[in-house]
Amino acid sequence: MLVKQYDIIPDAPKAINMGEYIIKSDLKYKALLETEANKEHSFQHFLEENPAYVPGAFEVFGLSGHYPYMNCLITQPRINDNQLRIPDFMWLANDSLSFCPVLIEIEKPSKEQFRKDEINRSEFTQAYNQIIEWKAILSTISGQESFYERFSIDEENRKKEFKPQYILVYGRRSEYEKDEWLRRKRALFQNDDICIMSFDRLHASRDVYDLVTCTVSNGQYYVRYIPPTFVYRPVTSHVLQKWIGFTSALSKIPDISEERRVFLQNRFEYWMCFGAKKNHGIMNSGDYE
């Protein structure tokens, strides 16, 4: 008979709740749009620290809500040794039938898509063509196999249909929202596997509260940032032993108390060991600490 094999500490220091987090982070994001729209690196850094704002983990392409593989956002993923430009971010999204890497390119918000004569600017064309290059790389069997090895994809996901998806975050809504012709032209660049969105459309997903941001090198996942909403959950504890540098990254979490930070440090080994077990017993998806 299966029983619970873990203990939840009921009076643990609490993580910031998602509602409070969204209020604080929205203010930061709006300030960036107003003051640093010409600095792509500022938005790269914000999104690395706040993976909830990066689209594609669950929504956009209608996936069923499975957690992304390795429970992380990957920053600056290299999908091919010969790439001149690499994606800014990637989710390894999936559901029961499909494995869907979501490759995301961002450009600084100040860039406009259209010239005064309503022709696409060369910067937009270059960004879009980069996505086409990634599609070409991942459309071949050798490209797929190399991808699986590069990101240590498990056998379960390798057996699913391989369906890469692509997102280009480009420009501001104000450029085209009042011009039906420009809206139509922009929409023509979208299809079943490419989504074009403006920086105004980015928002925090309430489902992305316990996912971290990683870099990947030689198939190893190195934790770079942990959001202040992070909690330990028995149903996701299996990835803790696969993340490198998690406890070091705890020192960089913003907007949490020192008491909460120490608690996360002290409970890491407990949850890592639980996650490493072959038999987890009964796990309640609503349990966390």
Brief description of this entry?
With 289 residues, the chain is α/β, with parallel strands linked by helices. The protein has 2 domains: 18-201, no CATH class; 232-289, no CATH class.
Q: What form results from the Cα inertia axes? A: globular
Count of DSSP helices?
8
Total domain modules? 2
Give the DSSP E fraction (strand runs of 2 or more residues): 15-25%
Question: What is the percent of helical residues?
Answer: 25-40%
Unreliable spans = none
Q: For the terminal residues, how far apart are their CA atoms?
A: 25 Å
- Largest sheet at a glance? 9 strands, mixed
Number of strands: 9
Estimated radius of gyration: 20 Å
Reading the helices and strands in chain order gives HHEEEHHHEEHEEEEHH
Averaged pLDDT:
94
Quickly give the structural class: alpha/beta
Give an overview in words.
The chain contains eight helices and nine strands. The protein has two domains: 184 residues, no CATH class; 58 residues, no CATH class. The protein is globular and about 65 Å long. The model has no long low-confidence stretch (mean pLDDT 94). Helices cover 31% and strands 15% of the residues. With 289 residues, the chain is an alpha/beta fold. Strands 1, 2, 3, 4, 5, 6, 7, 8 and 9 form a nine-stranded mixed sheet that branches.
